[in-house]
Amino acid sequence: MAEWIGIDRRARRCYGFDEVSLVPGMTTINPNEVDTNCEIAGIKVKVPILAAAMDGVVDVKFAIEMGKLGGIAVLNLDGVQTRYADPGEILKEIAEAEPDKATGLLQKLYQPKVKDSLISRRIKQIKKAKVPAVVSCIPQNAEKFSKIAAEAGADCFIIQSQVSSPKHISTEYKVCDYEKLCKSSKIPIAIGNAVTYKMAFELMELGASSVLIGVGPGAACTTRGVLGIGVPQITATVDSAAARDHFYKKTGKYVPIITDGGMRQGGEICKAFAAGADAVMVGSAFARSKEAPGCGYHWGMATSHSNLPRGTRIRVGTTGTLKEILFGPARVDDGSQNLIGALKTSMGALGVYNIKEMQYVEMIIAPSIQTEGKVFQVSQRIGMGK
Question: Cα separations (Å) of 100 from 1, 208, 249, 317?
Fold first, then answer.
């Protein structure tokens, strides 16, 4: 599989969303008759697209609205929602900052410590609306925050970092013991992020209820440029799906994988499921909704790092309501709205009834798929030419 890139050095070819395409099935199905339901950490939802735990995407109101529409929005416990009693003013200040000052402002605003009482309050606010409460934090805070979250009634806790190595080494701080935490937690623990077969498999062995897949593909993330690391999402998902399937054969336990980041439109979400995802996590697409707290702006979870930011604040604009982005009607031509409609239509054309069948459709390497016959769209910067 690997190719020579120099003397005594080989590298494996990996693939991203723009390099592959899905092949229509011999049988087609009415899109209204396919099933997009999925189960993540024991939570059954009809929308297999999670909203990412980013401050410009999810606050309490957004999480409630997403839950009422049949999905899950993940609240960031390391963000402004748990640092400030009134995060609205903080978010407005971030949105109004000049581009060259945005990162510095974020670094400043994320300095105050997270308040335990606000963690509990936010979760209870979400649960009061009778929708799933799923929250996320970095490994260093996981042991403490997961207990607070469980007591407040959270349904699932995600330990999320740039790379969730099961063998992290540090002499400066206490390393999170994933296995111990998964065994002792009263609620399911999901872990991310991983991009390789071995890491995904080991996280499953440690007790993860699901594993998030992706390093650096997000629209606001600069990890791949700053650190030079990452694996294109198609290959990362295929490899991690293999780990899931082999783990299931070995143990009888099915651990869902969630492809996290890099999906701008419906077609890319469809390709992620075809690569083996059980669900996907999206940030920028939801940051464009009227309900998103970022006021048309989006920034990565590591943007506020005090010494080495690995994200940037980007303007995504506001294009429609959350309901329009999920279910339509689409009012834009770039595939960023009616994501569930796109998924169902794709499933119908592929001839699959559910997400599990979607994972086995034929996929081809097609580097011209984005540009073939699209010269007018490209020259006019419309549709697929944007």
Answer: 43, 39, 51, 18
